[in-house]
C-alpha cells in the first residue's frame, strides 16, 4: 500500500456515488438482477464488491472465490463477505485447469497463470447466466494502461468500475469504503503462482509508475518534461513499452470492413414499435 501523491488524490465523497450509480445503471439497463465479482482477496476486488453491495444491496451481489490449488487466501475473501454482507460462492478451478494443462508440454508460470485466469472467467460468466447477474471487472487504470491483465481472463468483464482509477486511487477508495485493513495492507498480487507479486513481475512499483502515468496520460507531458520531473529515460522506455506493446489488449476485436455498414452502433427503434 502507498499514499498517492496529492495531484492523484480524489474527493471520494464525489467518486463513490458516481461509481455506485454507474453499477446500478448498467445492471438495470441489461435487465439483470445483481452483480458477480471474482473475489481474489485483493484490494481491487474488495472495492468492487463493496461498491456493488452499496449500489444493488448486499443480497444481490455474489463474490466468487475461485482457487486453483492454493486456497490460502480464502480468509480474505471471507473478510470481504463479512464486511459488506455479500454472498460468497467457492468453485475450485483446479480440475478443469489441470485437465488441459496436464496434456501440454513446456508450461511455464505465465502460461499456467493465463489459463487459470481464463478458467476463472468461464466460471464467472457461467454463473452470470445462472444468477442473472452482471460480471464486474476488478482491473484498475494502471493495470489497463500497462496491459497487466490476461486478455479474456481477468480483463474480461461486462463493466469495469475501477478502470479510470490509478492503483493509488484504489487504495484511497478502499479506505473510504471500509475495506478491511488486512486486505489494504497486502502486497498486490494476481495470485498466478505461489509468491507472485505484481510489482516484482512488472519490475515497477505502483508508487513510481502511477505519477508517471498521470503526467503522461492526464497532463500530456513530453518526455523532456517528464525527465525534468526525475523520470529516467530507461524508466520511461520501460513504461511506454508496456503501454504500446499491450495496446491491442485494450481494444475490442478489430473487425474487417468490406461494406459501408458496421455492427458496432446502436440502432434506434421507430416510434411505431
Description:
48% of the residues lie in helices and 7% in strands. It has helices at residues 12-29, 43-56, 74-84, 94-101, 109-131, 141-146, 167-177, 181-184, 198-202, 206-218, 223-228, 233-245; strands at residues 34-38, 61-65, 87-90, 133-136. The longest helix is centred in the middle third of the chain and has 23 residues, at 109-131. Strands 3-2-1-4 form a four-stranded parallel beta sheet, sandwiched between helices. The chain has a domain at 6-196: HUPs (Rossmann fold, 3-Layer(aba) Sandwich), CATH 3.40.50.620. By secondary structure, the protein is α/β, with parallel strands linked by helices.
Number of helices: 12
Sequence of strands across the biggest β-sheet: 3-2-1-4
CATH class descriptor name of the domain at 6-196: Alpha Beta
The tally of beta strands, per DSSP, is: 4
Q: What order do the helices and strands follow?
A: HEHEHEHHEHHHHHHH
CATH superfamily of the domain at 6-196: HUPs
- Percentage of residues in strands: 5-15%
Q: What is the CATH topology classification name of the domain at 6-196?
A: Rossmann fold
Topology of helices and strands:
Elements: H1 12-29, E1 34-38, H2 43-56, E2 61-65, H3 74-84, E3 87-90, H4 94-101, H5 109-131, E4 133-136, H6 141-146, H7 167-177, H8 181-184, H9 198-202, H10 206-218, H11 223-228, H12 233-245
Parallel strand pairs: 1-2, 1-4, 2-3
Helix pairs in contact: 1-2, 1-7, 2-3, 2-7, 4-5
Amino acid at each position: 500500500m502507498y499514499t498517492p501523491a496529492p495531484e492523484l488524490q480524489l474527493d471520494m465523497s464525489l467518486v463513490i456515488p458516481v461509481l455506485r450509480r454507474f453499477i446500478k445503471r448498467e445492471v438495470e439497463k441489461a435487465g439483470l438482477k445483481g452483480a458477480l465479482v471474482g473475489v481474489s482477496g485483493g484490494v481491487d476486488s474488495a472495492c468492487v464488491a463493496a461498491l456493488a453491495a452499496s449500489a444493488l444491496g448486499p443480497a444481490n451481489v455474489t463474490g466468487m472465490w475461485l482457487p486453483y490449488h492454493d486456497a490460502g487466501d480464502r480468509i480474505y475473501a471471507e473478510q470481504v463477505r463479512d464486511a459488506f454482507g455479500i454472498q460468497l460462492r467457492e468453485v475450485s478451478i483446479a480440475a478443469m485447469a489441470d485437465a488441459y494443462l496436464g496434456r501440454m508440454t513446456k508450461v511455464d508460470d505465465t502460461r499456467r497463470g493465463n489459463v487459470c485466469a481464463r478458467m476463472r472467467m468461464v466460471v464467472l460468466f457461467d454463473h452470470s447466466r445462472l444468477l442473472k447477474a452482471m460480471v464486474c471487472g476488478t482491473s484498475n487504470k494502471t493495470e489497463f494502461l500497462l496491459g497487466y491483465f490476461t486478455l479474456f481472463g481477468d480483463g474480461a468483464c461486462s463493466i469495469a468500475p475501477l478502470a479510470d482509477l490509478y492503483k493509488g486511487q484504489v487504495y484511497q477508495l478502499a479506505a473510504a469504503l471500509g475495506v478491511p485493513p488486512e486486505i489494504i495492507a497486502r502486497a498486490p498480487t494476481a495470485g498466478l503462482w505461489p509468491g507472485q507479486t505484481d510489482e516484482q513481475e512488472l519490475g515497477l512499483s505502483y508508487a513510481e509508475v502511477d505519477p508517471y502515468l498521470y503526467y503522461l496520460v492526464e497532463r500530456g507531458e513530453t518526455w523532456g518534461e517528464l525527465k525534468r520531473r526525475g523520470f529516467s529515460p530507461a524508466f520511461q522506455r520501460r513504461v511506454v513499452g508496456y503501454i504500446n506493446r499491450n495496446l491491442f489488449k485494450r481494444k475490442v476485436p478489430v473487425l474487417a470492413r468490406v461494406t459501408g455498414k458496421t455492427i458496432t452502433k446502436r440502432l434506434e427503434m421507430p416510434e411505431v414499435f
